[in-house]
Design brief:
Length: 89
């Protein structure tokens, strides 16, 4: 079985403690990966897809922004919301 790129969605930041955007998953044997970049200190507290908590796979905070990678295996198909929560805006 080959690894295939399915889709890309993006959201932007606004002041506040969360951001929500829609993403559509389709197919079988899926893994959903969400990458987040924060210009602030370590503020991301969690990510959900279709209200299911995603797992933090990697966080790196070298010099510059903090980068996070969350994943979810076998996410629900169709259009659902990704919600990124933060401790501050």
């Amino acid at each position: 079985m080959a690894i295939v790129f399915d889709a890309f969605s993006s959201g932007s930041t606004l002041p506040g403690s969360s951001i929500t955007f829609s993403h559509t998953c389709s197919g079988s044997n899926l893994i959903l990966i969400v990458g987040i970049t924060s210009n602030n200190a370590d503020v991301i507290t969690g990510v959900t897809y279709n209200a299911v908590a995603m797992t933090l796979g990697r966080k790196s905070a070298f010099t510059g922004p903090t980068m996070y990678f969350y994943y979810l295996t076998n996410p629900a198909g169709g259009a659902n919301n990704i919600v990124v929560s933060a401790s501050s805006g």
